[in-house]
Write a structure and sequence with these properties.
By secondary structure, the protein is of the alpha/beta class. Among the domains are: about 80 residues, no CATH class; about 160 residues, Leucine-rich repeat, LRR (right-handed beta-alpha superhelix); about 70 residues, no CATH class. The chain is about 25% helix and about 15% strand. Strand 14, helix 13 and strand 15 form a beta-alpha-beta unit. Keywords: Plant defense, Repeat.
Length: about 525
């Protein structure tokens, strides 16, 4: 049971058994009640705390005979949340029923809404991540998908939890849902601080005359069937977060320049090809996400296009994330002044850009995630102009290069390496071996096609089989020595997805240490 996950053997301590039996009896065999109660009790360690939970549940049931057991427990779970987590939970309720919420999207929204408390020397993103994990631990959110590192990628909320949350949200004027069944004016009459629009019918005809909208901090229209934003968008001067990801929109209104408090703009996977010059007025902008809607088809480089950005974008001195931009004009040269950038993607690079690219990258001391792409197989990039390795800790190489030294020059300590269309002439493994923090490596078709033996030694941070190892069709031997238990387990487990990737290799051996069988 989750309530005892931190106890020895995951078993109930003797002194808590009477309370545990009493609480289980009140669940009446209902699975959701047991799960929710386990999540609630996971943070309770003493008899006093368990007794208090039992007393509160008894009070709920005795004073409201119409309230079901499950709802009583869920209400109790909500009441037990710290104040910031209550806001985060209620915010999740505003998403549609059974909706899978992206972790990154949720965290950015929580930060933009001001739910995340300041903690000394801890980034807001990390604090928000801890909130999410706490809600998952308490069974207030369900993980429906994890990434390759085991971190939650998408979450959703149980229908009954959402129903209770929406009731609380409306009562406390936290937020309301507009689904098109009533006039949007009726939603405004609730005087809620947030409006979740789950239909696109006529909503932007109303923005110009609505006085309540101007107080909104976030506008999230991800995947909405909206192809035009009105000029009245500029009246939402308090907006910190504008998400248009996945919409069929082809351009942004010029009034976007009026959103002087905007911190995040996401136009990924839209039909927008060029940013208006007015974007350069957004002096508080920190995140500018512009990934192509075709990025999933990474094998066709003609489809991987970046966004055309105005020359003046270099004036945005607070910008931290900028991906993915088109290498045009003097934009590469201008990047060197954007010293706060930590994540950046550039596409359609050419050999002629090399000098300016290296100069700019060298000047970006906070850069830890870099994606460089070419869109023409006849182009080759080198990084000879780099004087020393950059501090980049996470790097993608999606380009044409023939020199292995690029791996070390571009980044001295990557955790993620992606080799695609590299056309490497030299053996890259000695250079990869010099990257001690590598956790994930992607080997796409065309990289080392004739390799027959692969020895991975002392890569303790590498927890999964290198992605694309199945493309090494001539590989005859794979030797793992002194590697992580996770990596060895994935290779040996017949039911593991990673096992299927190495079935074509006749000889596979795993050793904990040199000369010692696992």
């Amino acid at each position: 049971m989750k309530a005892f996950s931190s106890c020895p053997g995951n078993s109930c301590p003797k002194e808590l058994e009477p309370w545990a039996l009493e609480l289980v009896r009140k669940c009446k065999g209902l699975p959701l009640a047991v799960v929710a109660l386990g999540g609630l009790l996971s943070s309770k360690k003493s008899i006093t705390e368990w007794s208090s939970v039992c007393d509160n549940l008894n009070w709920q049931l005795n004073n409201n005979q119409m309230l079901e057991v499950v709802k009583s427990i869920l209400l109790l779970s909500f009441s037990d949340l710290p104040s910031p987590l209550k806001h985060c939970f209620l915010y999740c309720c505003l998403f549609p029923e059974d909706y899978e919420i992206r972790r990154k999207r949720l965290i950015k929204l929580w930060i933009a809404e001001g739910f995340v408390q300041q903690v000394d020397r801890t980034a807001p993103k990390e604090v928000a991540e801890s909130y999410l994990m706490e809600l998952i631990l308490r069974s207030m959110l369900q993980v429906v998908r994890r990434n390759e590192f085991g971190r939650p990628k998408r979450c959703k909320m149980h229908d009954l939890l959402r129903e209770i949350g929406l009731s609380i949200s409306e009562k406390e004027k936290f937020g309301v849902v507009y689904d098109g069944k009533v006039e949007i004016g009726e939603c405004e009459s609730h005087q809620a601080r947030r409006l979740s629009i789950q239909t696109t019918k006529g909503i932007f005809n109303h923005i110009a005359v609505s006085h309540d909208f101007v107080h909104f901090l976030t506008l999230d229209l991800e995947n909405a069937a909206i192809d035009v934003l009105p000029e009245e968008l500029g009246t939402l001067f308090n907006l910190r977060y504008l998400n248009l990801r996945g919409t069929p929109m082809a351009e942004l209104p010029k009034s976007i320049g009026e959103l002087r408090n905007l911190e995040l703009l996401d136009i990924s996977e839209t039909n927008i090809k060029e940013l208006p010059s007015e974007v350069a007025k957004l002096q508080n902008l920190r995140h500018l996400n512009m990934w192509s809607k075709f990025i999933a088809d990474i094998h066709n480089f003609e489809l991987v296009r970046g966004m055309q950005v105005p020359f003046e974008i270099s004036k945005l001195k607070k910008l931290q994330v900028m991906a993915n931009i088109e290498a045009e004009g003097n934009i590469i040269k201008q990047l060197r002044s954007m010293t706060q950038v930590s994540r950046m993607g550039i596409s359609n690079l050419k050999e002629a850009d090399e000098q300016n690219m290296c100069s700019s990258i060298q000047n970006l001391k906070l850069l830890h995630h870099l994606c460089l792409m070419v869109n023409n197989e006849t182009e080759f990039l080198r990084v000879d102009a780099l004087r020393t390795p950059t501090p980049t800790s996470e790097a993608f190489f999606v380009w044409e290069t023939r020199k292995c030294t690029a791996l070390v020059l571009l980044t001295s300590k990557p955790t993620y390496l992606w080799l695609h269309w590299s056309r490497l002439k030299d053996d890259p493994l000695p250079h990869i071996a010099a990257l001690p923090n590598l956790r994930k490596e992607l080997l796409y078709k065309g990289v080392m096609p004739d390799i027959q033996e692969l020895w991975i030694d002392s890569c303790l941070m590498l927890n999964a089989v290198p992605y694309g190892i199945e493309s090494l069709t001539n590989l005859q031997s794979l030797l793992l020595t002194n590697c992580s238990a996770s990596l060895i387990g994935r290779v040996n487990d017949v039911e593991s997805k990673d096992r299927s990737k190495v079935l074509h290799i006749p000889n596979i051996k795993c050793f904990k240490r040199r000369g010692e069988l696992p």
